Amino acid sequence: MKGNVTKQKPCVLIVEDDKENQKYLGLILKKNYDVEFCDSSTSFFDLLAQKQYSAIIMDITLKGEKNGLELTRELKNSKVYKNIPVVALSAHVFSQDRTKALDAGVKVYLTKPVDNKTLINTLHNLVKPGVIKK
Hints:
The chain is an alpha/beta fold. The protein has a single domain (11-127), classed as 3-Layer(aba) Sandwich (Rossmann fold), CATH 3.40.50. Helices cover 36% and strands 24% of the residues. The protein has helices spanning 19-29, 44-50, 68-76, 95-104, 116-126; strands at 5-8, 11-15, 34-38, 55-59, 86-90, 108-111, 130-133. Strands 3-2-4-5-6 form a 5-stranded parallel β-sheet, with helices on both faces. A two-stranded antiparallel sheet has the order 1-7. Helix 4 links the parallel strand 5 (86-90) and strand 6 (108-111). The longest helix is centred in the N-terminal third of the chain and has 11 residues, at 19-29. The radius of gyration is 15 Å and the shape is globular.
């Protein structure tokens, strides 16, 4: 007997300390992704340990001791989490900011305000929906 096959939405962790930006990103992405939020560098790795994320959207400037680039470097140096793609979302628009982010391990660097379609297409190219057999 064949089991039911259901599609599971990929889970995206949005690391953003601004509540309005969290709401905005959540509205854009909730149709295609399960979205969770982290609002400081302090709770980042605790949240990672609780769930398997398909991608991370990382703000560069965060509350806490570390910024988004430092968190990305630590993530990419971790055996457990290094394969999770990171999309940087930042108000920093200079080419050296992009270079620093890519050097830290960011897969894609987007600037705020981000175009909805650009963000959705970027995530779609990085993350494929999972299939779970029941």
